[in-house]
Amino acid sequence: MPYAQAHYPFENKEMFEANFPGDFVAEGLDQTRGWFYTMMVLSTALFDKPAFKNLVCNGLVLASDGKKMSKRLKNYPDPMEVVHKYGADALRLYLINSPVVRAETLKFQEEGVSAVLRDVFLPWYNAYRFAAQNILRWEAEHETSFQPEAVLASEQTNVLDKWILAASRSLTRYVREEMEGYRLYTVVPFLVKFIDNLTNIYVR
Q1: Residue 80: count of CB within 10 angstroms of its CB
Q2: Which of 56, 55, 59, 57 is nearest to 100 (CA)?
Q3: Which residues pair with 106 in a beta bridge?
Q4: Model's pTM, two decimal places?
Q5: Smallest Cα–Cα separation from 108: which of 86, 127, 130, 125?
Q6: In whole angstroms, what is the distance from residue 17 CA to residue 9 CA?
Q7: Which helix (H) or strand (E) holds 107?
Q8: How far is 109 from 13, CA to CA, in rounded Å?
Q9: Is 143 exposed, middle or buried (0-12, 13-18, 19+ CB in 10 A)?
Q10: What backbone phi and psi angles, to 5 degrees, belong to 95?
Q11: Which of 12, 135, 174, 187 is most buried, judging by how many CB atoms fall within 10 Å of its CB?
């Protein structure tokens, strides 16, 4: 919470006090003795309470050889090339499922981003494409547009329909609870398991 940024207390007093302390602050582990410590000391001295309610602290991303990433050594792939090759979402999922979100170091492996694309996004996209193709076929047969409706799992007669609806609701509830608790690192395994069940059991 950078107090001076809002020119507090000389301006924006109501806005600042309505948003203080901050819901969370995110910074690298190397800022523990700098940014985090400075905010905590200032907040304690000025307001007698912490500056933030939650802390998201990421570790350091190193090159695949365990050394610091260096432009001079060129020991890491160009980030934009990785994004263009695999997609930003694959890179995000790789990082959020890595030790770096638990304030540990990560030896960046491009193969890890590729594995996320192969094992998570392509199966998910294939399931989406399967649903889209069947919707188009249904619309052609019935000469009307498909209108998805909210359904209760208890009203379904097919056991697999009941199962996937319940699993979907469990996933939604779990992700919401974990994200609200700032436990980013617990979400991906649950999501991957759901996608595996969706593609390899339900769709198949």
Answers
A1: 9
A2: 59
A3: 61
A4: 0.78
A5: 86
A6: 9
A7: strand 106-107
A8: 46
A9: exposed
A10: -70, -40
A11: 187
Taking CA atoms, 110 is separated from 77, 83, 168, 192, in Å, by 8, 11, 30, 19
Residue whose tokens read 């998201």? 56
Burial of 182 (0-12, 13-18, 19+ CB in 10 A): middle
Rounded distance between C-alpha atoms, residue 116 and residue 193, angstroms: 13
Q: What is the DSSP string of 4-51?
A: GGGTTTTS-HHHHHHT-SEEEEEEEGGGIIIIIHHHHHHHHHHHSS-S
Residue 19: name the closest of 53, 48, 46 by CA: 53
Return d(Cα 13, Cα 196) in angstroms, integer.
50
Q: Which residues lie below 8 Å from residue 96, measured CB to CB, with a gap of 6+?
A: 184, 185, 187, 188
Instruction: Tell me what pLDDT residue 1 has.
Output: 61
Which token pair is 121? Answer: 């996004």
- Pairing of β 61-62 and β 52-58: unpaired
Tokens coding 137 = 């076929």
> How far is Cα 190 from Cα 175, in angstroms, rounded to an integer?
8
